[in-house]
Amino acid sequence: MAEVTLTIDNEKVSAREGQNLLQVIREQGIDLPTLCHLDGLSERGGCRLCVVEVEGSSRLAASCVTAVREDMRVTTASDRLLRYRRMLVELLFAERNHVCSVCVMNGNCELQSLATRFGVDHLRYEPLYPRLPTDASHEKYTIDHNRCVLCARCVRVCDEVEGVHTLDIMGRGVSSRIINDLNQPWRASRTCTACGKCVQVCPTGALYIKETLSAHVEKRPDLPRRIVDARKKRVWNS
Amino acid sequence: MSSTPSGKIRLATVWLSGCSGCHMSFLDLDEQLLELNEHIQLVHGPLVDRKDFPPEVDVVLVEGAVNNEEQKEMAGILREQSRIVVALGDCAVTGNVPAMRNGLPVKNLLESVYPVEGGHEPPGLSSGSEVPRLLPAALPLHAVVPVDVFLPGCPPHARTIGSALKALLKGERVVLEQGMCRFG
To answer: Can you tell me the mean pLDDT for B115-143?
Structure first.
């Protein structure tokens, strides 16, 4: 595969053609924040936390969905980028009801730790406080839409790794909602295999195993990568 | 910063719609409270036997969301009469648990708490009853009055409160260490 040379934060870097910027940036040991990205799943470019500045373009680019190009000059951290990333985290908090203190993921939540990382000590935006349902109809799992950030990791792992595509998103903008089948109660789903991969990849307390206690939740966001790799290496083929 | 004849900082605390957990966390400063006592004079709060909010307060720690008319009035008074207003804990900072009722009709909430007979309206629905009128939504403090310092956490750790007070006593800006700035 052809090599390309680009500049990331004033350092010359070589990458393989076809790689996305996020991969290359992380290979340099730069801890670029992400939320919707998950190793092993397709890229979505939804959360915009991985935005970078690309010289010659006034628009910020989501690095997870930007391909590397020869002679690209990329900046991963600037006052402007930090300002926008913090703003994004605050807007995510303001959009739904993220009550960390009573959430099962308190202490293990990716959104909560992003807020800590960016020093979000309050929200500058008026919270919407939407009335959202919780679907606890499934025997093992619960989906609480109050905590959902619409990263769609669950949708992608259900489709791309489990291969059943039970989950999807309906609606638009702030009215978007994760649904089962054609917006049925989870219990009524005829496609769900109850594998629980959606729960393991959820970055917040939107999806959790029933009867888990706060601060005792440990999710496995590394699962998709492990499964995809194992399949590629055919470790389960006898 | 010193405004009392003894050179001590006038500190007040206020308890709005919260569980008192933030005040408990303040007490968790333990022996550091004795040290603090050298520099502060506690002039108002649940720990002080004084009903009205005094004038010329240097620092006020406010726990809880603004949930009813009385608390809204109190927020105005404490802002007016204090130099530095600190939102103490998630309820004051984001609304937190008290704000989980936002979006529910106030009348239904009050009727389920106060059983009323014969078509009477529940207390707290309108102004003038003994129970302060419940606001349409529980609000973070900064939605009602300007706030100078935010200390998130449910409750904020005693260390967080301690380091913020130390900075304020020295007249410095409060900059929380990264791990200290956390919701929940």
So the answer is: 91
Dihedral class, residue B139 (left if φ above 0, else alpha if ψ from -120 to 50, else beta): beta
How many domains are contained in chain A?
2
A48, A150 Cβ separation under 8 angstroms: no
**pLDDT (tens digit per residue) in A120-153:** 999 999 999 999 999 999 999 999 999 999 999 9
Selected residues 100-139 of chain A with any CB under 8 Å from a CB in chain B = 100-103, 106-107, 109, 112, 115-117, 119-123, 126-127, 129-131
pLDDT tens digits for range B79-90: 999 999 999 999
Is pLDDT at B2 greater than 60 in this prediction? no
Domain check: are A116 and A131 in the same one?
yes
The CATH number of B9-95+136-176 is 3.40.50.700
Nearest chain B residue (CA) to A125: B143
Q: Please report whether residue A229 resides in a domain.
A: no
Contact A101 B147 (CB under 8 A): no
**Residue A167 belongs to what domain range?**
84-214
Peptide bond into B152 cis (omega under 30): no
Cα–Cα distance measured from residue A217 to residue A116, given in angstroms and rounded to the nearest whole number = 19
Question: Which ipTM value was assigned to this complex?
Answer: 0.92
Residue A225 lies in a domain: no
